[in-house]
Recover the amino acids of this structure.
């Protein structure tokens, strides 16, 4: 793994992939299941955004 900020890149990418997968599955669900999936996707998005911000500093 590369040192420093570059080491965060794979983690940001993984979280973005998780977010996209959860959004895709959520689109096929209804009710409480959809809400839970959307919340999980939001957490993945927030994590990716936070890591990207740290990487940019």
């Amino acid at each position: 793994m590369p040192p420093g900020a570059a080491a965060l890149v794979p983690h940001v990418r993984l979280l973005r992939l998780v977010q996209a997968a959860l959004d895709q599955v959520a689109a096929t669900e209804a009710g409480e299941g959809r809400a839970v999936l959307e919340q999980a996707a939001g957490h993945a998005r927030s994590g990716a955004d936070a890591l990207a911000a740290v990487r940019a500093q």
In short: The mean pLDDT is 92. The radius of gyration is 13 Å. The CA atoms of residues 6 and 55 lie 7 Å apart.
